[in-house]
């Protein structure tokens, strides 16, 4: 599936099975609905405080669903589980040394992405390590309706000057999707907006429809 250059794609962030209000079964059911509702480029699985065996069992099922839908499956901070379940990549939230080690060990065999940077200097230092993407936001921290202003600013700055793709964490509602689009980040991440929704499929469908409309409107200007 091809999209216009100005049209960001969605990244889905799945909460940890041990997070409040969720279980492995409910997350898998929501994931099924989301993956069939519209375009999703990749899915990041948050292991949180879930024990290794339980998370691996959950990830095995989730990765199968994600890959069957044509999306990339990415595991947060757990290279061992990522290898065991056949994930497409790892998302490292850690020190520069941790990121450098993951890039050296796993690329190009696996996607290695990172994020949770809070200022430009650190972002540039991380960028020098050549991860596959930069995530502006912290996994699981999308608790407010709007994207964090710092993340919006950093993503807009990054997308304008760096070739490494940007993923921007949106808020817990779709109300600020236009502000996220305006940064020209290549990807927009949705987590709480989907997994706390009564109708997660509708959220994915609405987000894709609105991104299509914004892309078309900008192209016509």
Topology of this structure?
Elements: E1 9-14, H1 24-35, E2 42-45, H2 52-68, E3 72-76, H3 79-85, E4 89-92, H4 96-106, E5 111-115, H5 120-127, E6 133-136, H6 149-161, E7 166-169, H7 177-182, E8 187-190, H8 192-195, H9 200-220
Parallel strand pairs: 1-2, 1-8, 2-3, 3-4, 4-5, 5-6, 6-7, 7-8
Helix pairs in contact: 1-2, 1-9, 2-3
List keywords for this structure.
TIM Barrel; 221 residues; alpha/beta; eight-stranded parallel barrel
Summarize the structure.
With 221 residues, this protein is an alpha/beta fold.
Report on the structure:
The chain has 221 residues and is α/β, with parallel strands linked by helices. It has one domain (9-220): Aldolase class I (TIM Barrel), CATH 3.20.20.70. 45% of the residues lie in helices and 16% in strands. It has helices at residues 24-35, 52-68, 79-85, 96-106, 120-127, 149-161, 177-182, 192-195, 200-220; strands at residues 9-14, 42-45, 72-76, 89-92, 111-115, 133-136, 166-169, 187-190. An eight-stranded parallel beta barrel has the order 1-2-3-4-5-6-7-8, surrounded by six helices. α4 (96-106) links the parallel β4 and β5. The model has no long low-confidence stretch (mean pLDDT 96).
